[in-house]
Amino acid sequence: MSSIRTSRTRLLSAAATVALAALTLTACSDGTGTRDEGASSGPAKNALAAATVPAQASASLSAKPADSTSKPSTSSTSSKSSGSAKPAKAAKQTPVQATSPAKAPAAAAKAVTCEGSNTRTVAAPLNRPINHMLLTVTNTGGKTCYLYNYPIVRFSEAQSVPPVIEDSKPQAVVTLEPGESGYASVSLSAADGSSDNGYTAKTLTVYFQGRSTDATTGKAAHPKLPAKGVYIDESLKVTYWQQSMNDAIIW
């Protein structure tokens, strides 16, 4: 009997052990016990990872604006530097352009006095007014010249020069550009023959004046007279140099 009781006791112990093991397994699989601890640590790790990811993302996002800010800053700096470089070059060229035109007028020499070496003089008798002769002086030089005052004329071997008609004085000095002409007329003799000491002259010399009256300057001109010569008397006189022929022949 004692042996049977012992066997039953052992069986009951074994059954209790099996039941306890079954209960343990059930607790592990329903989200409690040891597995519950593992599950709670898992979300903590996930939460840390999630917190780390936004931090990295925000860092990368903040880095992109920094890059984009730095890029426009660089481009604007380069554009400013390139923009400022162009005006700097233009500023360097401006003085060169301003200097060249300034030298041009200086290079075009000052005007000179008209005289025999830079002009050509022609003497031509006029039909109207009668007993008059026109002197035409043309600038043959490369510079502007001034015809000052009036011509000092000497016919043949005359010892004196004729006076000037004061009323014929122009308001300004006659200015001749290269190729232009100035004029003066010579009243050779009295139309009614009332003057004395008339004679026929075969040669003519024309002297030019400077700024001062009655002072000759430069080379004289020797225009040709008609082959028969021209008749002159004591009424001989000349006009001031004129800019136009019409102003010269009205005296």
Keywords for this structure?
five-stranded mixed sheet, single chain, alpha+beta, 251 residues, 2 domains, four-stranded antiparallel sheet
Give a verbal description of the structure:
The chain has 251 residues and is of the alpha+beta class. It is built from three helices and eleven strands; from the N terminus they run H-H-E-E-E-E-E-E-E-E-E-E-E-H. The model is unreliable at 18-85 and 94-108 (pLDDT under 50). Strand 8 (204-209) and strand 9 form a beta hairpin. Strands 1, 4, 5, 8 and 9 form a five-stranded mixed β-sheet that branches. Strands 2-3-6-11 form a four-stranded antiparallel β-sheet. Strands 7-10 form a two-stranded antiparallel sheet.
Give a brief description.
By secondary structure, this protein is an alpha+beta fold. The protein folds into 2 domains: 31-108; 112-249.
Which helices and strands appear, and what pairs or packs with what?
Blueprint: H1 2-29, H2 33-107, E1 112-113, E2 119-126, E3 132-139, E4 145-155, E5 174-176, E6 181-187, E7 199-201, E8 204-209, E9 216-221, E10 230-232, E11 237-238, H3 245-249
Parallel strand pairs: 1-4
Antiparallel strand pairs: 2-3, 3-6, 4-5, 4-8, 6-11, 7-10, 8-9
Order of helices and strands: HHEEEEEEEEEEEH
Q: What is the tally of helical segments?
A: 3
Give the percentage of residues in beta strands.
15-25%
Q: What structural class do you assign from the helix and strand content?
A: alpha+beta
Total tally of structural domains: 2
The end-to-end span amounts to 187 Å
Low-pLDDT runs of 5+ residues are: 18-85, 94-108
Number of strands: 11
Shape: globular
* Backbone CA Rg: 62 Å
Q: Helicity range of the residues?
A: 40-55%
Mean pLDDT: 73
Main sheet attributes: strand count, strand direction, barrel closure? 5 strands, mixed
From the structure provided, what is the oligomeric state, counting identical versus distinct chains?
Answer: single chain
